[in-house]
Design goal:
A six-stranded parallel beta sheet has the order 3-2-1-4-5-6, sandwiched between helices. It is 40% helix and 13% strand. The protein is built from 19 helices and eleven strands.
Length: 405
Amino acid sequence: MRQDILRGIRFADFTWAGAGPFSTKIFSDFGAEVIKIESVTRPDSVRTGGPFAGGRPGMDRSGYFASRNTGKQSLTLNLKSEEGRAIARDLIARADVVSNNFGPGAMERLGFSYDDVRAIRPDIVYLGMPMYGDDGPRAELLGVGMTISAVTGLMWLTGYGEGRSIGPGTHYPDHAANPYHAAFAVMAALRHRRRTGEGMKIDLAQVESTINMIGPSYVEYSGTGIEPAITGNRSRWHAPHNIFRCRGEDAWVAITVMADAQWPALCAALGLGALAAEPGLAGAAGRVAAVGRIEAAIARAVAERDGEELAAALQQAGVPAAPVQSARELIDRDPQLRARGYWQRIDHPEMGETGFTSPPYRFDGERVTLARPPLLGEHTDAVLRDTLGYPEERIAALREAGVLQ
């Protein structure tokens, strides 16, 4: 499988928590050598957060950490010590990319600003991912995915009607918008370096990359002065467009009509002949205006139907529909994900055999085979010995002095 695409690229990776490690995981999954700089005394925050394998907490048992750090190496350093920072500088001298997602000033206080790093490695690609970027009136403000979702308006738009915002959790700021913007920027910078020999500083403000997700709403507001409405699962242009309760415990089916020809097909499949006969509902605008009445009729018609069977029947009739699946159903039963080999199982020394999600793309038709995430400090000796060339006696002395923790 395609483990070799990014072979030869080395990261000195200071990222932690969500968006930063997900960004560098994109590279480690395809063969880049991502050396994650950690600390026993101040571990990556998601190592201490669940869900934990078997419900038993442990630094090497977090599913959250595992899913965002596949294929990486873990080097533990006490960066409060001069010896620890000296080791980090040795690694930077041999790295292609230095990455962090700290707030402004954190890397500078460690002695690893862009200018500091460039003095060590002039052609370095330097990725920073602060919430608001390195400068501007709000640059010193700190936040995580939920904060970013709130300040950008993404949380406002993700909810049901009447102002009941729910938000997308951390998934869209932390696992879609920001990591992939960062990865694209790093790839562009590496390509620029290959062509010119020049390094580059990337200042990725996570608020800015998140706003890109809701760009149409900002454009609409700037043109009309009217705040976009919260529509929930409905659409402003198509109807019906929602999920409906079916037979069973918390069972739902998603149904939408995207083209006028699908409307009579839906009515026929659900026995809604009276609605199909109304001329005013033949076009999308009429259905949107009558969406409440249409949804009520559909809800009555599907309440005692099996969701999977109903979705299959509607698909056969040319109506877009699908059962709403739980996480367990997606893992155990979804035929599309199973056919594409999306789920992978990795044997982990602490967690046992554990399921992982694959990158959502292939190269030359091939799915990458994931490597397991690292145990805390697992590769410290190997990195010092094999990458930095330290003799065993020096490594032992550094450990005795508390530098490798």
